[in-house]
Specification:
six-stranded mixed sheet; disordered N terminus; Nucleoside Triphosphate Pyrophosphohydrolase; alpha+beta; globular; 2 domains
Amino acid sequence: MTAPESFPPPAQHRVDSTVLDRAGEWRDDPEVLDRLRADPATGVLVVRERRVPMGDRLILVPAADPVLTRTREWALLGRRTDGSGLLLALQDIEDDTDADGSWAPHWNDLREALPRLVDDAADDSAALDAELVVTAVALAGWLRDASFCPVCGGVTAVRQAGWSRRCTVCGRDHFPRTDPAVIVAVQSADGERLLLGANAQWKGRVHSCFAGFVEAGESLEATVHRELFEEAGIRVRDVTYAGSQPWPFPRSLMVGFTATVVDEQVAHGDGEEIIDVRWLTRDEIGSSLAGDGPVGLPGGASIARRLIVDWHRG
């Protein structure tokens, strides 16, 4: 698969550290959620149908706010630098306003919320908001979908402040899943052109790096070689790790690589998933990044965009 048009930007500007303190040692306290819900300093991020509330920035509500009375599941997200807690409130409500109309934020999904946060990602608070959104949406999706044990079908009970579930029948513990996928920027042998592909579902409007999920028993490097041969008919060398980015739709981790083609003449789309592949010069990539080039490129919050920008900068 080629990369989605936009991705959340976790630690994109902070490669060596995370912004969010996840307070992992709090998770084993069975009373931590009740304690934080009773603390007026606690901030709560509501997630409804993979959407989060936005105003001028991400909206966190106090734990005593009446809007939280309909919460289906609670989970610990972490803590602020002052030690106050951060919670997730998963709600099933799909309306953009509450019954009494007292709270009507803009409900944004990741593609809408994160580009706004990326623009301010040099700001610590905006970077924290970006990581909070990605973590909350990913965890909320798992909490919603993992109510029953995949082994015996029994009902599962939330444990570790929302970070695990235990089957009430067979006793097995279950944890949030992450599905790894690779995404690769492929350059020509002379390093002066970049190969991008257009996914059929985009109808040729966007060209991006090549990507695909890791299969059972497969290494990341093996996935790179297999996906590029399947989608673009090419063999590559000099595969190098470039970075990673979570993408909770529903639970992916995009692992970015760069590579150099062995024979650029054989590049072609598979005709099903990839309908077009193009070798683009540095000037063509530059004009496309500026919005007036020969192809559309992935959104600014994406690791695909970052791989393309990094290549263009040389």
